[in-house]
Write a structure and sequence with these properties.
The chain is α+β, with helices and mostly antiparallel strands. It has a single domain, classed as Orthogonal Bundle (434 Repressor (Amino-terminal Domain)). Helix content is 55%, strand content 14%. The chain has five helices and two strands. The protein has a two-stranded antiparallel sheet with strand order 1-2. A hairpin with a 2-residue loop joins strand 1 and strand 2. Helix 2 packs across helix 3 and helix 2 crosses helix 4. The chain is globular.
Length: 85
């Protein structure tokens, strides 16, 4: 995950930096410093941030050096909707 992907994912979800920090169980400064490209968090913090966004349906794309994001409905929502139809 790049800093740009992180900012885009939060925007897609309408999450603040604080929302992401809370969901990933990392400090707000970890999110803020990463998104401003001040430093890359330690591996487990970066993985936790990425996982928190992925749990909300964000999919990170790396197409040979072209980075982006897309959205896939989280499985828990798919299962809930399946029972409605």
């Amino acid at each position: 995950m790049t800093p740009e992907q992180c900012r885009a994912a939060r925007g897609w979800l309408d999450w603040s930096q604080d929302n992401l920090a809370s969901a990933a169980h990392v400090s707000l400064s970890t999110v803020r410093d990463f998104e401003k490209s001040r430093h890359v968090p330690i591996a487990n913090n970066l993985a936790a941030m990425e996982a928190a966004l992925e749990m909300q349906g964000i999919v990170f794309v790396d197409d040979g050096g072209t980075y982006g994001i897309t959205y896939a409905k989280p499985e828990k929502e798919q299962g809930a909707l399946d029972g409605i139809n």
